[in-house]
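sorry for the late reply, my laptop died twice this morning and i had to redo everyting from scratch. anyway the thing you sent over, i finally got around to it. pasting the sequence first so we're on the same page, its 161 residues, then the predicted structure underneath. double check i copied it right bc i was rushing
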Amino acid sequence: MTIAIGDRIPDVQLRMITDHGVEVASTADVLGKGRVVLFGMPAAFSGPCSDTHLPGYLVHADELSALGVDRIFGVAVNDHHAMGAWARSQGLGDKVTLLADGNGELARAMGVDLDLSKFGMGTRNQRYAAVLQDGIVTHLALEGGTGLEVSTADATLAALS
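ok and here's the structure:
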């Protein structure tokens, strides 16, 4: 079942690269406090994810902050090494933090897993954007298939305005 508005974000362990190295992060800890934007992408370094989805959140990070967003997180079903390299290649700094859902546990727990086996990619994240308030989903935009319209930073800004 897909997560819905009013649901609490599932508590699973993810990994992220910080200034101190690899950190195991509980979603309850990193996503469960304050107002958070979480956007899901199928894969690190893929065209639409690298060209549009992730950069949009970086470009609009200050505007999201002005609307009361405390932190912005992107997540993909990739290992933490790939996510760390992707963060560095995109110059994210501290504006957007990438979470590695290496085993797809968060994607499955949220019901947003997407079978891309026919493309040789296995099970990945569906594209989505969610706004969380203290771990509760207050806004959710799921893309149909692999589209990129309702989960963009522009769409999230519009939903928060």
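The longest helix spans residues 47-59.
thats about all i looked at so far, will dig more tmrw
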